[in-house]
Specification:
The protein is α/β, with parallel strands linked by helices and 221 residues long. It is built from six helices and five strands; from the N terminus they run βαβαβααββαα. It has a single domain, classed as NAD(P)-binding Rossmann-like Domain (Rossmann fold). The protein has a five-stranded mixed beta sheet with strand order 1-2-3-4-5, sandwiched between helices.
């Protein structure tokens, strides 16, 4: 499963659940779907090695540490904050994926679920479609001249998702075709556990009937 959901907005936009749309799409939706997929796989006792691949960005290295005081809170912001939030939510996603790897593989001997991350590099996608038109015009020129086409950018994704080279390997970060380490902040187990707990709390707040038993399937508590 390749988790690629992301948007970039010119300003804050509140969803029906009260969350910021970028937070909900770029981060929390990936959390919820990956939880449900792993829990369903375990309950069905399917054979094989599930692979979850989160699309990240090397821009996460410039993001600040997780701000738990504002985590999940809605507040207004403009273009500059929206651009910064893209990198910040990639930091959240990387931290979550690392914690997910701890919970699925570290506490369940013999249970292997690959949880890996990849930055495909700059991609000429349509993610800037909501930007103000002057900025969109400039960015479109940059994207067209410098960035890779989606089909070319997908090549390292296919490699990480299906190659035998990564059989039995989890918590891998691929920057295009090169294995790298993510930012050190991502590996902090205290921050990872708190991020997990806060994410589950918000999930329960916005979902009137969250599948609590499925969440517990991959929780050490």
């Amino acid at each position: 499963m390749i988790l690629n959901a992301a948007v970039t907005l010119p300003q804050a936009r509140q969803t029906a659940s009260g969350q910021d749309e970028m937070f909900l799409v770029n981060y929390l939706a990936n959390v919820i779907l990956s939880n449900l997929l792993i829990a369903k796989d375990r309950l069905s006792r399917q054979r094989g090695e599930p692979r979850l691949l989160f699309i990240s960005s090397d821009s996460h290295r410039g993001a600040s540490a997780v701000d738990f005081e504002e985590f999940g809170c809605y507040f207004d912001y403009g273009v500059s904050k929206a651009i910064a939030n893209y990198s910040y939510f990639k930091l959240l996603l990387n931290t979550y994926a690392t914690e997910l790897d701890r919970r699925t593989n570290g506490i369940n001997p013999g249970q292997t679920t690959q949880v890996n991350l990849i930055c495909p590099g700059p991609v000429n996608s349509n993610i800037i479609k909501a930007a103000p038109w002057p900025l969109r015009w400039v960015l479109r020129g940059i994207f067209t001249v410098i960035f890779k086409s989606p089909s070319r950018a997908a090549e390292p994704l296919v490699y990480l998702a299906g190659s035998d080279d990564f059989e039995g390997h989890s918590n891998v970060y691929l920057h295009m075709f090169s294995v790298k380490q993510v930012d050190n902040k991502v590996y902090d187990p205290v921050a990872g556990k708190r991020l997990w707990d806060e994410s589950m709390r918000i999930w329960r707040q916005i979902d009137t009937k969250p599948p609590q038993s499925l969440i517990a399937e991959i929780s050490p508590d």
